[in-house]
Write a structure and sequence with these properties.
Chain lengths: 123, 476
């Protein structure tokens, strides 16, 4: 088992290198202006997310920003982070919070139990 | 985690305009899923598995060390008596009965939202996964807390006092072996993984009542100890895992044995092979259902059934049932290849060889559970704190913990990865040790034993790397 841990420790370094090289490709919301944080847009029509469940990826420490525009009134709930905000029919609601919990979390219209986004936070 | 995909598949199948029939089950107990283990970690872990395997073959011991090892070193009398005495036995039994009672009561009388009711989290997280961890570390603790054993012992004592000695139970048909337990576990896994109302609190309560009735009937027919050792699914399941632990109780005395020695003592009764296939196959399917290729083919299977007149929800149940059976088949196939290989040097019938090595899969089954459900237990397990205070979801605060929340910062994704990979590799090593030891006992000289081992080694490598593969594919 000692051998195992040494090998794993070695693997850790390797991984850090690799993850930094791939970071540039996976950083979200940077297609247009890399330096300015842009709110991701999630549009809900007839109680469903347009274009399917929106997939958003972040690194731990990033700022998660998105706006939900909905044609139905509901509560937008981000699981795990446990942040919930009401949205009115025809209105929009803005989220901005630091990505500090790692894993894959759902954002849903709480009353409809409809998932609208998937937040992916990597170490 | 499955239910996220279930929701996605239903949505695809039903079309976005249609009402989605099974969205109530779309969340279940999880609002969080694990990140897939990164490719580099998968590579390293797989490499370690191979190196450990071949290094092991070259350097492991030359005479059996676990086979027939009955070593039992009693722990100090004082410690043993403090933990195991008539009072603690009664107390543990009471806790078991109380927990069963609260679970059934909450399921029937509480709010029917899975996350706000005590029953689903207690059954699927604390009982089903938590007890596995405790069994591997501390031995057969479920035996102490088993509510059905407690009820049966009290009922037996009362009946004996009222109407004299009880008639002897029926002889348990030996050909049944562990088949009832294997069937019970398959039913439980189906309920968890495929049944549309799998985490519906009242359904779980009724299932618990029905299962309790069946268990007490089995006990009444065949006697408490016999039925718990052969037929009662959870007793058999947790007992298998507890055999990994060095902690044991012998004649009422707490002591230590060699870890894994009790696994090597597993009697090859009928049904044991099926039991292990169910244990590994169901967890394998739960892991596989989170990633490709399953996520890609499941909608096609579901469409196949919808086209034949089944509703979307029934089609999904059928799809997941098929997936679960496919996983069982895959486990059987991998093991059969190993058995076939061993037969190149040992001409006994395949079923005999299969029985001779089946115990080597016990650690594999344990680490599949631990790797797959580690984060589920660490995160969702915390919710038992507020559910205990408000088991019915009616706004109570019995223990002042009702406003607790799940703290997702207790471990990060990196820790989850290392634990998952670490336990899979440890299980691999344990399986390897057991197979080596059995081969030495069967075939004497290390040289001959090695030939049989190549095959069982291939089985272990297949299960471990496949387990790693599933972790790297999940939620991609």
């Amino acid at each position: 088992m000692v051998v195992l841990f040494i090998v794993f420790a070695g693997g850790d370094d390797e991984g850090d290198n690799k993850s930094t090289t791939t970071q540039a490709q996976t950083t979200p919301g940077t297609e247009t202006t890399p330096d300015v944080a842009v709110d991701e847009q999630i549009t809900v029509r007839n109680g469903k997310p347009v274009g399917g469940v929106k997939k958003l990826s972040y690194k731990n420490g990033d700022q998660i920003r998105f706006v939900v525009t909905s044609d139905v009134a509901d509560e937008v709930h981000v699981h795990g982070y446990d942040i919930a905000k009401d949205v009115k029919a025809g209105g929009s609601v803005r989220f901005s919070f630091p990505a500090k919990l790692e894993g894959i979390f759902e954002a849903e219209l709480e009353n409809r139990k409809e998932q609208i986004a998937e937040l992916r936070i990597s170490p | 985690m499955r239910r996220r995909w279930a929701a996605a598949i239903i949505a695809v199948a039903a079309g976005t305009a249609l009402a989605v029939p099974a969205t109530a089950a779309a969340h279940g107990l999880v609002g969080r899923a694990d990140l897939p283990i990164p490719a580099w970690l998968f590579g390293w872990a797989a490499a370690v598995v191979l190196i450990v395997s071949f290094a092991g073959l070259a350097t492991l011991w030359q005479t059996p060390k676990l086979e027939g090892d009955e070593t039992f070193r009693p722990l100090p009398e004082g410690l043993s008596f403090t933990l195991i005495n008539p009072a603690t036995e009664v107390f543990a039994g009471l806790i078991g009965v109380a927990l069963l009672g609260v679970t059934i009561w909450a399921g029937l009388a509480g709010v029917q939202a899975p996350q706000a009711n005590f029953a689903p989290t207690f059954i699927y997280v604390i009982f089903w996964v938590g007890t596995v961890v405790l069994s591997v570390v501390f031995g057969d603790i479920f035996r102490a807390f088993n509510p059905w054993r407690a009820i049966a012992r009290v009922a037996g004592a009362v009946a004996t006092r009222v109407s004299g000695p009880m008639p002897a139970p029926f002889a348990y048909p030996e050909r049944f072996g562990r088949w009832p337990a294997a069937a019970g576990l398959l039913g439980f896994a189906w309920m968890e993984l495929a049944y549309r109302n799998g985490d519906d609190p009242s359904m779980l309560a009724i299932a618990a009542l029905v299962y309790s009735a069946l268990t007490l009937l089995g006990i009444a027919c065949f006697g408490t100890e016999k039925w718990l050792a052969r037929g009662e699914a959870f007793s058999v399941y947790f007992n298998l895992f507890s055999r990994i632990s060095p902690v044991a109780v012998k004649d009422g005395r707490l002591g230590l044995r060699k870890p894994l020695a009790a696994v090597a003592r597993l009697e090859p009764l009928p049904g044991t092979i099926a039991l292990l296939f169910v244990m590994i196959g169901t967890v394998m399917f739960d892991g596989a259902s989170e990633g490709s290729p399953w996520v890609d083919i499941a909608p096609d299977i579901q469409d196949f059934f919808i086209a034949r007149g089944f509703g979307p929800a029934s089609s999904l149940e059928l799809t997941f049932t098929i997936g679960m059976l496919l996983a069982l088949g895959l486990v059987a196939l991998i093991y059969a290849i190993g058995v076939f290989g061993v037969r190149t040097i040992d001409r006994r019938p395949a079923i005999e060889i299969a029985h001779l090595f089946i115990h080597t899969l016990v650690p594999i089954a344990a680490v599949y559970v631990l790797a797959h459900y580690f984060s589920f237990l660490t995160y969702n397990g915390q919710s038992i704190a507020y559910l205990a205070s408000d088991p019915l979801g009616k706004g109570w605060d019995l223990f002042g913990t009702a406003d607790r929340a799940i703290d997702y910062t207790v471990v990060g994704a990196t820790t989850v990865w290392y634990v998952q990979v670490g336990v899979l590799v440890s299980g691999h090593v344990c399986g390897l040790i057991l197979a080596h030891d059995r081969a030495l006992a069967l075939y004497g000289k290390a040289r001959t034993a090695t030939t049989s081992q190549y095959w069982m080694l291939a089985v272990m490598v297949a299960f471990t790397t496949f387990g790693l593969f599933l972790l790297s594919q999940a939620n991609q």
